Amino acid sequence: MAAPKMTLRPASGKRHAQIRTSPDPREVALGHGGVDAFDRLRDDLVLAVLAGLAARAGGPADLATAALTCRRFRELAAYPAVLSRASAAAVAVRAGGWSEAAHRFLRWCAAAGNLHACYFLGMVRFYCLGSRAAGSALLARAAAGGHAAALYALAVVRFNGSGGGKADKDPRAGVALCARAAWLGHVPALRELGHCLQDGYGARRDAAAGRHLLLHAAARELAAVLSARRRGGHCRAEDDDGAAASRFMVEWWALMSAEKPAAAAGEGCSCGAGEEDAEELRLCSHARCGRRETRRHEFRRCSVCGSANYCSRACQALDWKRAHRGQCGAAAAAARWLAAGNAY
Ligand SMILES: [Zn+2]
Ligand SMILES: [Zn+2]
User: Fold this and answer.
1) Which of 14, 21, 123, 226 has the most beta carbons within 10 angstroms of its beta carbon?
2) What is the pLDDT of residue 196?
3) Higher model confidence: residue 290 or residue 330?
4) Residues paired with residue 292 on neighbouring β-strands, in sequence order
5) DSSP letters of 108-130?
6) 172 in a domain, yes or no?
7) Ligand 2 mean position, distance from CA 336 (Å)
8) Which residues contact 99 (CB under 8 A, 6 or more apart)?
9) Within a domain: residue 162?
10) SS (H, E, C) 162-179
11) In whole angstroms, what is the distance from residue 143 CA to residue 108 CA?
12) Distance between CA 102 and CA 94 in Å, rounded?
């Protein structure tokens, strides 16, 4: 789905016209023959309808289409009362449709206090656009509002010291953030917390408690798969509130990689790689994650084959179940073969 071509006004109260909360007596006096019934609807009623539409929107196009219906809808759809209610799907812009208009729409939603937009734009800015400080601030806003995926995203940042150096790794803060996200029902955070307790990473080692959390996470993942099958949908155990941001990042890096030849030919690169050489930065090997290193050798490698890189142990465990279990042995054998001097 393409990004919405939004023409909404900024979510700033100063720029909005005074909303009408009661019918204009002159219009009522005209009766049915003088004024369109829609024009006689109070603005607060129209706002309530638009807010309900935004809360149930299945994609960014739903709200954009409503805003394009008429001038009044366009103006009222830009009110914070509407933008703050937009659903996670309503702000889930696709990477292929990324534009200044889509960026502006997300900024307005975030400014209106929409936690989904704060999280989504925070991830896009931090990982894709290279705006680490702005991205972190947005993720922190979403996390402060109780957004579980944002709490987990900040945990991954703390575990890896993303956006900084090795010295910026803070496992204890990562564990604390994971615990809050897991408490809110975030399954990857629950899995990460289980690994941390099992290994004593960022927390006092408690193997039994770690195993218990890992079993609990596996049960939750299985329940999600079975539930999706019953509904006839896709079976994605790792589906959560952050799936849309991951999908954006996966698509973004695929597009950047496809555009690389053009950039090399002198058109420049807009990937926001920042200070590091983009060629050296690796993507998380979990195909549905989309995170990319913010410095060289930031992500942990698979200790067996050394050819897979992961932003977190949750991603490593999910990728092991999805794909790497069947690839790791072959990759390790190929590495040993090369190390034995068979390459030419
Ligand atoms: Zn990952
Ligand atoms: Zn491996």
Assistant:
1) 123
2) 94
3) 290
4) 283
5) HHHHTT-HHHHHHHHHIIIIIS-
6) no
7) 13
8) 3, 5
9) no
10) CCCCHHHCCHHHHHHHHH
11) 18
12) 9
At 230, list the tokens. Answer: 């019953």
Amino acid code (one letter) for 132: R
The CA distance from 260 to 281, in Å, is 14
Q: Is residue 7's pLDDT more than 60?
A: no
Q: Give the model's confidence band at 105: pLDDT under 50 very low, under 70 low, under 90 confident, else very high.
A: very high
Distance 326 CA to ligand 2 centre (A): 9
The CA distances from residue 280 to 274, 277, 295, 332, 341, in Å, are: 12, 6, 8, 21, 24
DSSP state of 309: E
pLDDT score recorded for residue 30 = 47
* Within-domain flag for 187: no
Nearest ligand atom owner, CA of 307 = 2
pLDDT band at 3; cut points 50, 70, 90: very low
Q: How far is CA 173 from CA 142, 154, 307, in A?
A: 17, 9, 28
pLDDT over threshold 90, residue 40: no
What is the distance in A from the centroid of ligand 1 to the CA of 142?
20
Range of the domain at 15: 1-113
Write the single-letter amino acid at 343: A
Beta strand ranges found along the chain (DSSP E): 300-301, 309-310
The single-letter DSSP state of residue 16 is S
Q: Which residues of 206-219 are buried (b: 16+ CB within 10 A; e: fewer)?
A: eeeebeebbebbbe
State both tokens at 244: 């849309």
**For 169-216, what is each residue's pLDDT tens digit?**
999 999 999 999 999 999 999 999 999 999 999 999 999 999 999 999
What's the 309 CA to ligand 2 centre distance in angstroms?
Answer: 9
In a domain, 220, yes or no: no
Q: What are phi and psi of 272, to 5 degrees?
A: 70, 35
User: How many domains are contained in the chain?
Assistant: 1
Of the listed ligands, the closest to the CA of 291 is 1
Instruction: Pick the ligand that lies closest to the CA of residue 308.
Output: 2
